[in-house]
Amino acid sequence: MENKELIQLAIEAQKKAYVPYSKFSVGAAVFTDDERVFTGCNIENASYTPTICAERVAIFKAISEGSKSIKKIAIVAGDEMGYPCGVCRQVMMEFAQEAEIIVAKNTEEFKVYSLKDLLPHGFGPKDLEGYNV
Ligand code: THU
Hints:
This protein is of the alpha+beta class.
C-alpha cells in the first residue's frame, strides 16, 4: 500500500465527516497486518463527549473486523497537517505501536512518523505484563 494511495482514501473518508458542531472534518485510513484497508471520519454528537475521532473509527473498524494490528495510518484534518489527538495516540499504543503514521495535508505534502515520535514514553500493553495474571 503506497502512502499516497492511503492518503487519498483518507481524503475520501474526510468528506463523510459528521461535524455540525466543530465544522472540522478529519479523515483516516488504515492498512492492517492482514493487508486490508479501513477508513474513518470524525462523528460528532449534540452531547459533545460521545464524539469520536476519525482515527479511532478507522482503527476500531479494523479491529472489530478481525485485523490484529495497524501497519500504516494516514490522517488528514482541516486544511493543514492532520496530527492525531492524545486519545488517538493512546489507542495507537494498543493497536498501531509499530505503524507508520502518515500526517498529511494532501497526497503531495505529508510527513511520516513512528508512534515513538508522537508519543514518547507512552504507556501500553507491555507495562501491564506480569500484573494482570
Ligand atoms: N478530531 C479527530 O477526528 N481526530 C483528531 O485527532 C483530532 C480531533 C475531531 C474530533 C472533533 O470532531 C473535531 O475533530 C474537533 O476536535
